[in-house]
């Protein structure tokens, strides 16, 4: 299996320890899954690797890495909204999907140490799965990241570096270490193996419901879930098991909305926007590295961007908690954005919203 550079098209074996192409372009996997067939689902596995025939995997390394991630229930909130409870996973967030596949790849190619920058959830997930695989781990987070997330990362034995400044500056500091010390960059944005795990979100939904809901709400910072959702839906559509693409409602924080602003003008690159503090810390990405790719997907599939009103996040969190759903602030922003979308476009029934992070992770 190989990587293909999204910038120059150069082919590179997936065994490389480099984070990207020598031209600076990001990698894409040269992988086409077989046509969707329920018979290819391994129903002896109660984790996301039951769908491994549709995922790019090197070997069977996943067997010693998996912690039962995936297979999260879908529950009804009200007549219009279904919630996929993705914080029911080992590190209490949806990022376990991608971390499990990425760390499986790392183990298969002999990675011994890694670094990553994160707003918290991805760093915690990579730290946990790296610990399970016996891989040393160092995580860079923005100063002010939820103390609960930092404690969880440290509990897995990973070193934590708290970097003053913006989330984007944190990424720059981590990437400088990658360049200078040539340590493996276990990054959920750069490494396409991460997206292979995120595809399971859609595969599970289809298997659980026997269909895909008409509307799917997806938070977008760097776009890891967004890319996985789009790729999996494209796969199901090409396989003929769904006959149309659902309406994806992609949300950003109103205090950090480079893709929302770009989409308003049909721009091909994210807009430069001021980044101010937001409770939706998990999607506060001012310069998404795959921004052009995210926008291209949006225009191909008529994806609508919407922002989550900052002053509605705690209200949305309280409403969910009153119905037994205790989620973190960024996750509450998903529901706040959905309600704002309904204000803009009218009633929006048959909608699936991810509950991507547990509330205990953002009590600060």
UniProtKB/TrEMBL annotation:
Entry's SUPFAM superfamilies? Tryptophan synthase beta subunit-like PLP-dependent enzymes
The organism encoding this protein is Parasutterella secunda
**Keyword Lyase on entry:** yes
Q: Which InterPro entries match?
A: Ser/Thr_Dehydratase, Ser/Thr_deHydtase_PyrdxlP-BS, TrpB-like_PALP, TrpB-like_PALP_sf
For this entry, the protein name equals: Pyridoxal-phosphate dependent enzyme
What PROSITE patterns does UniProt report for this protein, alphabetically? DEHYDRATASE_SER_THR (PS00165)
Q: Which cofactor does it need?
A: pyridoxal 5'-phosphate
Q: Tell me which residues make up the Tryptophan synthase beta chain-like PALP domain.
A: 65-357
Question: What keywords is this UniProt entry annotated with?
Answer: Lyase, Pyridoxal phosphate
Superkingdom of source: Bacteria
- Upper lineage: Bacteria, Pseudomonadati, Pseudomonadota, Betaproteobacteria, Burkholderiales
């Amino acid at each position: 299996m190989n990587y293909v550079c999204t910038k120059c098209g150069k082919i590179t074996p997936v065994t490389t320890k480099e984070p990207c192409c020598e031209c600076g372009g990001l990698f894409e996997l040269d992988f086409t899954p077989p046509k969707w067939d329920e018979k290819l689902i391994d129903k002896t596995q109660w984790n996301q690797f039951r769908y491994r025939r549709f995922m790019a995997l090197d070997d069977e390394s996943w067997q010693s890495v998996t912690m039962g991630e995936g297979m999260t229930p879908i529950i009804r909130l009200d007549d219009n909204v279904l919630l996929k409870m993705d914080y029911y996973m080992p590190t209490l967030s949806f990022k376990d999907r991608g971390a499990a596949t990425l760390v499986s790849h790392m183990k298969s190619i002999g990675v011994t140490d890694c670094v990553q920058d994160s707003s918290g959830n991805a760093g915690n997930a990579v730290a946990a799965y790296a610990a399970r695989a016996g891989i040393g781990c160092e995580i860079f987070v923005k100063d002010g990241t939820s103390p609960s997330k930092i404690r969880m990362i440290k509990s897995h034995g990973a070193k934590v570096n708290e970097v003053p400044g913006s989330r984007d500056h944190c990424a720059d500091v981590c990437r400088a270490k990658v360049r200078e010390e040539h340590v493996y960059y276990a990054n959920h944005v750069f490494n396409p193996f991460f997206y292979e795990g995120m595809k399971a979100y859609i595969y599970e939904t289809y298997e659980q419901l026997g269909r895909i809901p008409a509307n799917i709400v997806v938070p977008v910072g760097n776009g890891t879930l967004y890319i996985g959702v789009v790729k999996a839906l494209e796969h199901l559509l090409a396989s003929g098991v769904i006959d149309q693409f659902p309406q994806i409602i992609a949300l950003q924080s109103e205090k950090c909305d480079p893709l929302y602003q770009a989409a308003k003008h049909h721009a091909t690159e994210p807009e430069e926007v001021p980044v101010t503090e937001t409770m939706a810390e998990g999607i506060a990405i001012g310069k998404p590295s795959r921004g052009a790719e995210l926008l291209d997907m949006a225009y191909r599939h008529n994806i609508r961007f919407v922002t989550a009103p900052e002053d509605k996040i705690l209200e949305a969190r309280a409403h969910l908690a009153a119905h037994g759903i205790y989620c973190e602030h960024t996750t509450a922003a998903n529901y706040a954005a959905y309600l704002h979308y309904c204000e803009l476009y009218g009633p929006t029934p048959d909608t699936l919203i991810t509950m991507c992070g547990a509330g205990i992770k953002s009590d600060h």
